[in-house]
Amino acid sequence: QVELVESGGGLVQAGGSLRLSCAASGRFGMGWFRQAPGKEREFVAYVSRPGGTTYYGDSVKGRFTISRDNAKNTVYLQMNSLKAEDTAVYYCVATGGKYATSPRDYEYWGQGTQVTVSL
């Protein structure tokens, strides 16, 4: 059973920064999705294993950075220049497959961490 343990969410003012972390009990392609109230889950970012090729959703390009520490089996999401519309529950995901932007293609999900950006 794969376990994903997230940390780092919280409340921040618009323009601020937060860093999310996710520790995995294995080596996978890993990424982040988010879901705001009343909206569908949205792809945020992905980093491949172990080479570290990265992909981003259009709404976060240039503001968010995903990275991984293979020695720790941990992925990070550095979020800068946060906006109110970034408010959502952020989910860490992992897959034994290839890069994908559909939630259906990720076998493993964390419990989610709330990120709230205030004006």
Tally of helical runs = 0
Radius of gyration over all CA atoms, rounded: 13 Å
The class by helix and strand makeup works out as: mainly beta
Helix fraction bin: under 10%
**What is the total tally of β strands?**
11
Order of secondary-structure elements: EEEEEEEEEEE
**Distance between the amino and carboxyl termini:** 40 Å
Uncertain runs: none
Overall mean pLDDT stands at 94
- Overall geometry comes to globular
Report the β-strand fraction as a percent range. over 45%
Sheet having the most strands:
7 strands, mixed
What's the SSE blueprint?
Elements: E1 4-7, E2 10-13, E3 18-24, E4 29-35, E5 42-47, E6 54-56, E7 64-69, E8 74-79, E9 88-95, E10 108-109, E11 113-118
Parallel strand pairs: 2-11
Antiparallel strand pairs: 1-3, 3-8, 4-5, 4-9, 5-6, 7-8, 9-10, 9-11
